[in-house]
Write a structure and sequence with these properties.
Length: about 100
Amino acid sequence: MTGNFSIDWRNGATWEVIYILYLVITPVLWSGYVIGKRICKIKLKRTDGDDVTLSNTLLREVVGFHLVGIVTLGVSLIVSVFMVIFREDKRAIHDLIGGTYVGKP
């Protein structure tokens, strides 16, 4: 609005794109792990038990988490919290869309 443009990677879309790429690519390369999941000794898996693919992580993170979250103005994030609390399989909306779940290796 002011005519100033910042490419400061810590603020704005640049950091968001880097973070989404990390969440999409790293689990594919590390067999379902990102740094935090590896520390907690849990991993992302497909519902059929195989390792996640690029299409699983794209659907899970980009469509299921970010796009649906934006379209629903954040309501889907609140619904996901209740899904994890009350569902027996502990899968949230983004897990259902991506065909994944988080569990022990």
